[in-house]
Amino acid sequence: MTSEAQVIARLRRIANDPAARGLLDDAALLDGLVITHDTIAEGVHFLPSDPPASVGWKLVAVNLSDLAAKGAKPAGALLSLTIGDDGSWDDEFLTGVEHACESYGLPLIGGDTVALPDSAPRVLGLTAIGRPGPKVPSRDGARPGDSLWLVGTLGDAAAGLRQLSEEPKAHGLLVESYRRPVPQLGAGQVLAEHANAMMDVSDGLLLDAARLAQASNGVAEIALDRLPLSRAFTAERGQDRGARLFAATGGDDYALLAALPAECDPLILPLPSGTTITHIGAMTAGSPEVRLFDGVDPIRLPETLGYEHRGRNASPMADCP
Amino acid sequence: MTSEAQVIARLRRIANDPAARGLLDDAALLDGLVITHDTIAEGVHFLPSDPPASVGWKLVAVNLSDLAAKGAKPAGALLSLTIGDDGSWDDEFLTGVEHACESYGLPLIGGDTVALPDSAPRVLGLTAIGRPGPKVPSRDGARPGDSLWLVGTLGDAAAGLRQLSEEPKAHGLLVESYRRPVPQLGAGQVLAEHANAMMDVSDGLLLDAARLAQASNGVAEIALDRLPLSRAFTAERGQDRGARLFAATGGDDYALLAALPAECDPLILPLPSGTTITHIGAMTAGSPEVRLFDGVDPIRLPETLGYEHRGRNASPMADCP
Fold first, then answer.
1. A160/A164 Cα distance (integer angstroms)
2. Taking the CB of the first residue and of the last residue of chain B, which one, N or C, has fewer CB atoms within 10 A?
3. Which of B74, B7, B81, B1 is nearest to B34 (CA)?
4. pLDDT digits over A103-137, tens only?
5. pTM reported for the whole predicted model
C-alpha cells in the first residue's frame, strides 16, 4: 500500500464512532448537525496563478457542496488559513471567502491563522456545519432498482482546467466553472427527503459512482449518452464518446448524484428554478462496481475513473468526509 | 499593519454572527455545541525533530484545551492532514492522535487528507466539537472583584523547548510537558458552572490575561510571586523573578485561567483529584490591561507578554478561536 492508502486505512480503523459513518460519507453527523472539513492546497487543488478571490470562493463552495449532498442548510464555518507575506493575496482571498459566505448565508464563526515560510505552499481549510432536514441521505442506502439522477452538468471544470494548462491566460465560462463552482444547496435540500443515497460529485462521476456502489454494495450503471453536458462544454470538446468519457472522469464538477426510488420523479419536485437534473442510470444488484453503457452497448471503463486529487497515489477511498 | 494583523482584522469584520463570539473566544458556540479548530505547522508549532507520536498527541490536546476552557465534554473531531512520502512518520503521528483520542474519549468522526510535495512543511489541523454544560463561559465576562485562578503549572513547556533548542536530544519531564500537554478537561467542566470568564493559557499567561482583560474591559492584576511552578521547573530554572517572568510569558502551558466571583472558593469544588489550582490575582476596574505585582510591589511588564507563535508578526489577536 502507498503511504496515503495506509493512512486512510488506519483512519478508518480509528474512526469507529457511528457519527463517522465509516469515513465513507461526505460529512459526519453529530447531535443533529452535519459537519465536514475540506482542505485545499496550492499546487494540488488550485493553481498558484488562480485569482485569490476565486480560491476563497472555491474553498467555501467545495465544503458547501458536501452540505448540499446531505440536504443541509449552511449554519456556520471555521476557517483555517496559512498567511504569507503577500498581504494583497490574503486580502483578495478573503474577499472570495466573504462573497461565497454571503451568497449562501454561511456565517463565519471561527478560525485559525498560521504564518508559514514564504516558500511553503498555501494550505487552506474550512470546517462547514449545516442543519439537515428530517432525512440525511448517506452514500450507502442505494438499492437495486433505484434510478440515478445527476444535478448539474459534467466536465465544465475539467475542460476549463485543460484550457488553463494549455494557455495560462485562458478565460471564459469553462475556466469560471473550474474556479468558481456553484454548490447545489437548494436541490440537495429538496432531494434529501426522497433519496436513498446521495453524494457530491467532486472527483469525477465514474470514481464517485464507484464509491456510491461500494458503500451501497451494489452496481451503479451509468448511461454515457445521457450525461448532461453544457453548451460551453460541447462547443469546446464536442460530445462524442471521447468527450463524454472526459466529462465523466474530469472532476471538480460539484454536481450531486442521487439514488432515487424508481417511482420518484424529481421533475415534479419543487427544485430551484433552473436546476439541471438528469436521469443518468440505475442501481442493480451485484458485486459493487460501476458499469458504463453507451445506448444499449456496455463499454469498457476507462483506466482512470476520476481525478484523485487528494494525493499522487490516492486510493479510491482517499476522499474522507 | 502587518499582513497577518490585516487578515485578522478583516476576519473580525466578516465574522459578525453571534456564534462567532467576535472571534475573541477559544471556540464558537453553535446550536448548543462548542466548536474549535486549531492548526499546527512544522517549524512553527512543532519541531521537525519532535517524535511524530507526540505531534499527533499535541494536535489533539491543544484542541481539547479549547474545549476544556468552555467546560465542554469531547464529542467528536475531524482531522485534516498533509501526507508526505514518509509513511512511518504518518503512522506514528496517527498513533499519537489515536492515543489522545482514546485517552479523552474523543471520537474521530471525519477528516481530509492532502498529499503535499515532500519539501513542504506539514500542516495538521483538527476541528474538535464538544458538548458543554449549562453555562459556557466566554472571555468577556470577568468583573471587577473577581478572583483569577489558574489550573495547572506554568513554564514547564517553555523550559522544555529551551532545553531542546540547546540540546536536540534533551529529554525529561519538561520536554515531555512541551511535547505532550495535558488538557484540563475535568477541571474545566467543574469550573465552567461558576466562572464569569474562562480561557486556556496557550500563548503565555501575561499575553492571554491581557486578552481576557481586553475582552472583559477590565484590569487583570497578576501576582508573579504566586504563580504555580513545578518542581521540575524550579530545579531547572530556579524561582527568582527572572524565572517567574520566563514562566509567565513562555507559552504552550495549556493551563486554564478562570475569573471566579470572590466568594467562590474552588478548593471546595469537586475538581479531579490531583488538580493544581492557584489563586494568582484579581480583576479590577479600569482601562483594559494586565498589571503585574511581586508581593505588594507593582513591577513593569516585560516587553514580550507571550509567545505569539501564530506568526512572525502576529498581533495579540492572532489567536482566533
1. 6
2. N
3. B74
4. 999 999 998 888 887 788 999 999 999 999 999 99
5. 0.90
Give the C-alpha separation, B116 to A23, whole Å.
Answer: 21
Measured distance between the N- and C-terminal CA atoms of chain A, rounded to whole angstroms? 21
Q: What is the DSSP secondary-structure string of B85-110?
A: S-HHHHHHHHHHHHHHHHHTT--EEE
Is residue A118 located within the same domain as residue A155?
no
- For residue A108, list chain B residues with Cβ-Cβ distance below 8 A: 11, 14-15, 17, 20
Q: How far apart are CA A216 and CA A210, in angstroms?
A: 10
Compute the nearest-CA separation of B246 from chain A (Å). Answer: 24
Domain enclosing residue A53, as ranges: 3-131
Count A/B contacts: CB-CB distance under 8 Å.
260
Which of A10, A40, A75 faces B91 most closely, judged by CB atoms?
Answer: A10
Is B149 exposed, middle or buried (CB count within 10 Å of its CB: 0-12, 13-18, 19+)? buried
Residue B1 scores a pLDDT above 70: no
**Do residue A39 and residue A100 come from a single domain?**
yes
Query: pLDDT (tens digit, 9 = 90+) per residue, A153-164?
Result: 999 999 999 999
DSSP B47: -
**CATH number of the domain encompassing residue B159:** 3.90.650.10
User: Which residue is listed with cell 460519507?
Assistant: A25
